[in-house]
Structures are given as structure tokens and as C-alpha cells.
């Protein structure tokens, strides 16, 4: 059994008792199958938020004891939380209630990846022109709201989808409008996802630089051609190499790169090879994801059991990435978990010294308002006195978003206080 509850407050005691049944079930299943989970019975997207809250209340030692005894976390995951927490404590955030993070989503991609569960649609010029017109309307309305409430963007993130799917004309219009409306002196960083190398051109990178964005993400997921073909990404490893070269020539300051552990038919050796190739390109941030097989993906129909089969492979890949990244001076700076992940593991963003992405940290901490523009954007308004969030969703279908743009704006006018 798991021993006596440590000294808890009343709320924590109630929570401990609720978790007792989960621990009993976990122990039963674990004994039966021989399987243990590194995160124990802990569910939820933001384990570091729990670590931080417990640490604020009880100090680190007691917080870690609680995570061991209540949630049955492994020492490995406790050390991941502790190291990530240290990196975050090194950065200085704008804690003013007027500082918000701003997101704009572009729901187009060149092709749909096998595992994709996002709001992503095949790019078409006609659709993108209409979409940017609607988004511009939302940008102008939110700019007015920011001015009225004296809010400002501490960080800006343009994601998707793949924003660089847009033609130069619409891409420039988007960057121009965002820079005019939100990039102010207090804005600390601006990231543009250029996730697919098949959409990255010298002209788009020059536009990124021209309008003042300082970070991009170039996302190979793997450097193995066979896997790229299998997962429906219409690019080669060489295109990743070329995209890095173009980004450096354009003077982009910080480059993140996303990788996925547990992709179909990949071995730990394949993943190690990918990491070696990525290190040669010199990214500042590397985000190591665990394959998550969601209901909205094609992968769930093609191979519903893959997340279970890949658990051990993912464990080895995560170990490899932790060791290789640490040897090269990368540290974990944010992490989150999702449902349906292989082995019930996590996604971890690693950074070189001083390059952590503030936007990523703050949306996971949920201690700042996040205003999300575009189809599928879910804004969260933070009320610090009550430490709670109120959601303001936009519709996720981009055609409905265009049709109902005035309603999306009205929701924000009422909800952002
Ligand atoms: S690039 Fe990202 S958003 Fe686009 S299809 Fe692939 S997983 Fe989905």
C-alpha cells in the first residue's frame, strides 16, 4: 500500500482521499500487468502548474513528497518537473495584469499529417484571402479593446495550421496588421510558426524579419524520409536543412524545431539519428513531443493500437533525447501532457540558455490572459484575485468563422474585461 497521507490542508486531504481509489485501482492493474506509469495516477495537461502551486504553498521538499505519495510520480518525472521549474524561475516575466499573450491562428497547411487533430485545412488562395480579411477585422477590434483597457501583448504567437502556407501577399498583410496593432515597446517576443519546410521561402523569412518577429519554428518531426512519406508530410529532410540555412541568412534570431517520438515504424536508433542531424543545424529550442493519437486524426482509423504498442519505444526515445540534449547544454523549460499519448508520457520544450519561449511558458502556467484570434482560437481571460480563467471561444471551422466574424468580435468585446 502507499502509506499514510502526509500533513495536508483540509482541501488537500479531500483530494488525497479522492485519489485513494485511483491509487488502489492503479496498484491492482499494475500488479496484474506488471506495467507502471512514470506519471503515476496524475492526469491533466499541466503537471508543472501543480508542482508550482504545491511549492508555493508548502515549499519544494514537501511538494515533491506529495507528488510521490499522492500521485505516485517516478523520481525521473519529479526531476523533470524540478529542472523545468528552475529554468522558469530564471526568467523574468511581466506580472502586470495588463500584460497578455496574443495568439493568431492560420488554419491552412499544404497537406494533412497522418496524426493531425488540429484545425487544419488544405491551403487555397481564395479561402485564405477571405480568411485574412475576417482575421483583419478581428485584429482591429481587439486592438480597440486593448486600447480601451490599456492591455498590451507581452508575447505574440502566430500558429496554426501553418502560417507560412499563405502566399506572400496575405502573409505580409497578416504580419503588417499584427505589428501595427500589437507589437509595442513592451512586447518581449514574437514567434511565427513556419512549421512545414515546404512553405518556407526567402521572401517569407524576410517579411518575418521586416515586421519584427524574432522567432520561428521549423518542424521536421523526423529526419527519416521513409517516415515523412508515411505520415503524409510532403517534404524531405534536405528541405529542413535548406529552411534552416534560409532562416539564418535572413537573420532570424531564435529557431525552434519540433520532433515526435513514437512515429510509426521508427526505432530508438532512428530517433537518435534524427537528433544528431538536428544538432548539426543549430536550433536554439527543441521540442520533443510524444505521439498522441487523437480521435480527429487519420492515424486512429489506420492504426488504433499504435499508442499502446509504441510505449516502450517512446520511453527509450525520451531517455535518449534527455541525455543528448543535456550533453549539449539544452535544458527543459516547459512541458505539457495530452490525452491519448503513447505510454502516457509528455511533451517537453528544451532551450539553450536564455532562449526559453515566454509564450509557451505562460499559456501552460495559466496565470495570464491569453487572447486568441482566428478560427479555433480559445481566449482565456485570467482573474488574478480569484486565480481563475474564463474562456471565450471562437468557432473552429474557418468558413463559419468568416461568416460569423461579427459574433466572434462581440464575444470578445463582452468577455475581455
Ligand atoms: S503541419 Fe501541423 S497543423 Fe498542419 S497538418 Fe501537420 S500536424 Fe496538422
Description:
This protein has helices at 10-33, 47-58, 60-69, 75-90, 125-149, 168-182, 202-210, 225-230, 237-250, 268-281, 299-302, 306-309, 311-327, 358-365, 398-403, 405-415, and strands at residues 99-106, 108-109, 121-122, 152-160, 189-193, 215-217, 254-261, 285-290, 331-336, 347-351, 370-373, 378-383, 388-393. It is α/β, with parallel strands linked by helices and 417 residues long. It has 2 domains: 10-90, no CATH class; 99-365, tm_1862 like domain (pyruvate-formate lyase- activating enzyme, Alpha-Beta Horseshoe). A 9-stranded mixed beta sheet has the order 9-10-8-7-6-5-4-1-11, sandwiched between helices. A two-stranded parallel ribbon has the order 2-3. Strand 12 and strand 13 form a beta hairpin. Helix 2 packs across helix 4, helix 5 (125-149) packs parallel to helix 16 and helix 10 (268-281) runs parallel beside helix 13. The mean pLDDT is 94. The structure holds iron/sulfur cluster (SF4). Iron/sulfur cluster is lined by residues 109, 112-113, 116, 118, 120, 160-162, 195-196.
